[in-house]
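Chapter review: from sequence to fold.
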Amino acid sequence: MLYHQRKTERMQLGRNIKSLRSLKGFPLKYVATELGMSISNLSNIENGITGIEQKTLKKLGQVLGVEPQQIQVFNAEKFFSIAVNPSASWQTN
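The token string follows.
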């Protein structure tokens, strides 16, 4: 069960990375180059196949122009909901 939780978290983080990268308009190749890794390695991270080290997450935040914590908690569905309806709130209440 613990392995499954880790895999689920890894997959969610990968989706967050891919969503933020796409929102910024950065090609996979550009971000991979900036991180000093292969395109396939970054693709594996985005697809939840492999995890990401904390130092790489920090560097990724610099490349994307966001804090690493923002990558971890990014919610694309909520982001687009607010983008379409600006009166919506980021609050979870």
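Two observations follow directly from the output. The chain is about 70% helix and 0% strand. The CA atoms of residues 35 and 59 lie 7 Å apart.
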